[in-house]
Amino acid sequence: MCIFGAMARATGLLRFLALGLAFVACRGEYNANSILCDDIEAICIFEDLPFVQNDTVCGNKQEFLNPTKCNCGSMCISYLEEGDECFKSSQIYYPQKLCGPGLECMTSEVEEDKDYCVRNPAKKCINETLRYEEAQEAGTLGPGEYKPNCDEFGRYASRQCSPGSTCYCVNKDGERLFGEAPVSEKDNVDCACSTYWEETESRGLNTGLRCLPNGNFDELQCADKMCFCFDFTSGTISFGPFPDFMMEDLPCYDVAIHGSTYQRPCEKALEEWESNESEDVIIIQETARPVCNHDGYFAAIQYKDNYVFCSDFYGRQIEDFHQEIHLADGLTCNCARRRYIMEENGFGSNKPKCCGNGDYTPVQTRGLLAYCVDSNGNQSGPEVEVTDITTLPCYSEDPCEN
Question: Of 26, 259, 261, 369, which is most buried by a Cβ count within 10 Å?
Fold first, then answer.
């Protein structure tokens, strides 16, 4: 008789080995309790199939559950490259090969009976990428054009970089999020924290993990007077928690980033501003409420009297960029912030031209060429010689007029 009941009470590796020995010893006597996979481990072992929790390393292949009874184990599917022939349907019930990341199996416009792995030009990010590559191959690439960074599904990747200036964070539709850094730090920017906050706020929440100014997670996190190291890859605490007065003993503490206290400039200013209110009396504020980003530093747009101004990370006005409040709807200060970041990181000679409110001047010039730009400062449309600047669709005698 099988001793399955006793073996089932074992744990970890001993349980796994015990089950294996039990089923080897009494394989013919095991009967599933139902047609449901309610005891996957036992069924997989009985059927001589790998257990679903077995680790399978697929490398650059795609991992799938093995289409066997109860999906025991997993299997690796090879990727096809761009231009390889593929099949939209198959007589077998699972694929043997798949189009690689960023590719789709689409019917050829020339050979209607054949399908190939291609980048889908109907997707905005891919369409812009294809146009960039065509211009690059033809030698007509403009001085302000940038190659979009697309994810494996053809959507905008969270980090985008403009040539020679900065990298910034966006959502899957290419819309700007918090987070920006000099392009020289490109390889260290993942914008994971910016993406996390977009999701968090979409659920109506306003508390969560803290970011770095570039949109990454801050490895050091503190809450309720406790600090810990956060592994953003696994989403778990990797060290700690420690009381906040022991913050400097954590391996993720960096004096250059965290200073002597966890509180950052805007958080401190906000706390001081809010301390002017009490249950007994409300003091009329002489200064506007500080606006903080998810990194604890000042947001790009700050308020003062009857106008808004473009701010650096420490709440100081960038150059003279400002706008009357009643005209500030839609203001981003993207250009002013880029100028500030570039200046601070040694790229000042190529700073973009901004309107007085800190947004980009619609027409930018580089050398003997002029071109239109979008709200992120990237070239939009063809460039012309500076002498023909009036032919650009974005040209105006007063381009910064609202």
Answer: 369
In the block, residue with structure tokens 């954590």: 250
What residue has token string 């530093």?
297
Contact 18, 40 (CB under 8 A): no
* Chunked mean pLDDT (size 10), the chain, 402 residues: 37 36 43 67 75 59 72 80 86 76 90 90 96 93 93 96 95 96 95 96 91 96 93 88 93 91 92 74 67 96 95 96 93 96 89 96 94 95 94 92 68
The residue length of the chain stands at: 402
Q: In this structure, how many other beta carbons lie within 10 angstroms of the beta carbon of residue 166?
A: 28
C-alpha distances out from residue 41 to 6, 20, 22, 240, 289, Å: 15, 10, 13, 35, 58
| Sequential DSSP letters for 345-368 | TT-GGGPPPB-TTSSBPSEEEETT
Helices (H), 173-264: 192-202, 255-258
DSSP conformation class of 200: H
Element (DSSP H or E) covering residue 222: strand 220-223
Q: What is the pTM of this model?
A: 0.80
ω before 241 within 30° of 0 (cis)? yes
Distance from the first to the final alpha carbon of the chain: 86
Rounded to 5 degrees, φ, ψ at 106 are: -130, 150
Cβ(40)–Cβ(73) below 8 Å:
no
Quote the CA–CA distance of 210 and 192 in Å, as a whole number.
Answer: 11
CA distance 213 to 344: 14
CA distance 32 to 66: 20
